[in-house]
Amino acid sequence: NDPNSADTPNRVAKAFVNDVAMGCYSNPPKVTAFDNIDGYDGIVAQTNIKVNSLCSHHHMIFSGMAHVAYIPSKEGKVIGLSKLNRIVDWFSRRPQIQEGLTSQISDYINSICEGNKGVAVFIEANHTCCSNRGIKHDSGMKTARMTGAFLDEESTRNEFYKFVEFAKK
User: Fold this and answer.
1) Are 68 and 84 in contact, with CB atoms under 8 Å apart?
2) Are 101 and 51 in contact (CB under 8 A)?
3) Which residues pair with 145 in a beta bridge?
4) How far apart are CA 21 and CA 90, in angstroms?
5) Using N-to-C axis directions, what is the helix angle for 98-112 and 81-92, rounded to 10°?
6) Does residue 130 register a pLDDT over 80?
7) Of 145 and 5, which is predicted with more confidence?
8) Model-level pTM?
9) Which residues neighbour 17 within 8 Å (Cβ) at sequence distance 6 or greater?
10) Is the pLDDT of residue 68 over 70?
11) pLDDT the model gives residue 128
């Protein structure tokens, strides 16, 4: 009987297709990889990238922050910093579990940044499927995927996590 709900089913369907799950239907962001003409071989990181996604188990929102990095090789490829944001946003806009989102972002960056020495993705998010159902907690979930130097070299992994900690302050 609420007149505000008269067209709600259509609005919900439209929101799912156009906003929440658009990553399932839209093309990936256009990402041009450039030759690393400067020979930079340090960490390239983007922190505090907003994540808004949908739990595939309950179709409830989870949101938080992603922190991503890669290490280009001197002969490898680099991408624009805004592209890391676009990659996270595109993969976030689909029903999934956080572990899958973390892996998808890592794999995509790895494929575009050819010849890289490693990729790191760390996501921390709060899940409304927990906070609004039964358990009713505000705890966060953390997932990480490391490859190459981030996985094999403790000092490189620690440097990435220091970037993440600094970004939170």
Assistant:
1) yes
2) yes
3) 121
4) 9
5) 140
6) no
7) 145
8) 0.90
9) 25
10) yes
11) 73
Both structure tokens of 70 = 């890669």
- pLDDT surpasses 70 at 34: yes
CA 19 from chain center: how many Å? 16
Q: Output the six-digit token pair for 8.
A: 């709600």
Nearest in space to 114 (alpha carbons), one of 77, 80, 68, 87: 77
> Which 3-state string (H, E, C) describes the chain?
CCHHHCCHHHHHHHHHHHHHCHHHHCCCCCCCCEECCCCCCCCEEEEEEEEEEEECCCCCEEEEEEEEEEECCCCCEECCHHHHHHHHHHHHCCEECHHHHHHHHHHHHHHHCCCCCEEEEEEEEEEHHHHCCCCCCCCCEEEEEECCHHHHCHHHHHHHHHHHHHHHC
Sheet with 61-71, strands from edge to edge, namely: 95-96, 44-55, 61-71, 118-127, 141-146
